[in-house]
Amino acid sequence: MLMVLLPAGGAARAAPAPPSPKTLRAHRVDAPPRVDGVLDDPVWEPAEAVTDFVQQEPHVDEPASEETRVRVIFDAEAIYFGIECFDSTPAGVIGRERRRDNPLAADDRFEILLDTFHDHRNGYHFVINPLGTQYDALITDEGHDINAEWDERWWSETRVTDAGWTAEVKIPFTTLRSRADASTWGVNFKRFIRRKNETAQWTGWDRDFSFLQVSQAGHLEGLDGVRTGLKLRLKPYALGGVRRTPSSGERTASPIDDAGLEVVKFSVTPGLTAELTANTDFAQTEVDEAVVNLTRFPLFFPEKREFFLERAGIFEFGPGGRRGGVAERNLQMFFSRRIGLTDDRRPVPILGGGKLTGRLAGFDLGLLDVQTDRFEGRPHSNYAVLRAKRNVSGRSNVGVFASNHVAGGGRANTVLGADLNFSIFKNSDLAGFVGRSSTPGLRGNDWVGRGKFNYFTDLHEVFLEHLYVGPAFQHDVGFVRRRDVQRTDAAYIFQPRPGVLGIRNFVFRGEVTYLTDIHHRLLTREQIFQWTTRWQSDDAFRVNTTNTFDRLDAAFEISNGVRLPRGDYEYREQFAEMETSAKRPAAARLRLGGGDFYDGSRRYLVLAPSWRPLPALSVEAGYELARVKLREGAFTTHVLNARLNLSPTNKWLTTTLAQYDSASGRWVLFLRLNWIYRPGDDLFVVWNRGWQRIIADGRDLSLVPRDETLAIKLRWTFRK
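User: That's the sequence. What structure does it adopt?
Assistant: Structure tokens below.
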């Protein structure tokens, strides 16, 4: 096994003594300001203003190059932020994105982090750009989980002026959760100036920490008498439309008419929220991206359904798949897509469910229960998940996990586990969990566990992880890529900043993964070396080489009609990649790669251009081409994921997706119009159609229409 060592003289720079936390006092007002993006209401004048922003990038510890001024006021209903982003070149302010919950990476932006429980680890993240476009997320465990699909009601208005841009933000207390006696919250602010790629923060600008590490926030004082949490919210929906499906060579139409309760939400305590849903529908949910799977293992697809995404971070258990991408995720102990979806990603009717999340008696608590109906021979099922953890010793926590799946006919699967996440000093994390499943009729080694150590600074990172999955471990509410494995992953990352030729930093990464069965027989080994150069312009270039050993214990059909025999395979691949900065209207990522592949070769291209000529229009695409030549046969794969967004305003959002993958031969066209007629209330018009490419004897015969759906969904909210 490759041993990764720090080079001589490569010790991390000594961290300066942390300054005393900054403090800002919120000013109580009797009458609220008019939220119009112009700070001309008299209520702003007596409020304390903070201006002492410090750069994190590109010149750490230096004052921000442009002045930023922030004030905070509140009344009985909401908390308000008055923001002035001065700019010596106002024509250089960049704002192009109108889609809500887009990360706004290509724009100037202002970010607010609120730690309402003041526990120094969990918080709310609110972001706006100069167009007033909103992004919000829930932050769990110092940013280990970022739930960007969390959506709540808040207001933002902006103005671009001849001195920069200004904003007013209103966040109702019903949107937030806190302790009843919490008069002090954690708070931090961040401004990003896109044309300079400059990041400036009010506090916590040390590069060893990210903005979402809540422990680095300052204090927001004076919030006496604030009561958070909603009393009651009901959100019903009505759904209508038509569905056409192929039947005996003809396409038959059937009506769609349904109604239900998207959610009933109410506060049990100021820090604990209950949610109920009945006859749940996800008609507006985007389709998954098209992919071609050249492995013999299942792929991980992210959750997109709103009910399961709300407060999802609280259910995270154990060290997450921090390094695993969509395709590489190896284990996730709670995977909500196992509920209400088949293995081939078709929806299963959900009769109802309930969720309880928040803080209770010093614990972060998550409780979920969902009942699904019978579907195409599958029995009705009940899924229950419990997650509880308690903060200990600064930024550490301990917790437990339990899940239970009971299917019709009495089949049951239970998983229990306990975990520890421990922060050692400033720059080290030690985490791990152990769990066990119980499935009647299934005997054998049913244990699972993971341990992780991570040392990180701006200059160095060392990562070591070991995963164990027993051959009889069964998890009906989790994602398990491989069983009967032990996987060790070790990496060292070195990120020097040369300060020449406009280079921001180099990133040298060496990594080895070593996977055996539980009897230590080698199954897979990967050795990776990668070198990235990132410029101050935010353009980047990287090269990568990967040496792979893979043992096939059984023959494997890698493509239609191409079957790899069992045996041991060793091969090496390389790629070079260039990505241009998203600050420009046109940007792109291009990857060219190739090399040996099993007993043959592979050459591939990945192209991902984007174009944002106007705030109302953006076009993004991803195309992958691979040519594979093996002794057993040759094949070519194509994958296309293209998106066109037309958004005349922040309230009228349209998305068009076009997808194709040659492995399934399926084309998909997805159209969605979203009218946000009131914050939190929507009208959706969704059209989804598929076509199947038919090939026989190597000849392309035809493109056959498949399912087609036109749905109109209205959801509205009653609040108390």
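Residues 23-221 form a domain with the Immunoglobulin-like fold (CATH 2.60.40.1190).
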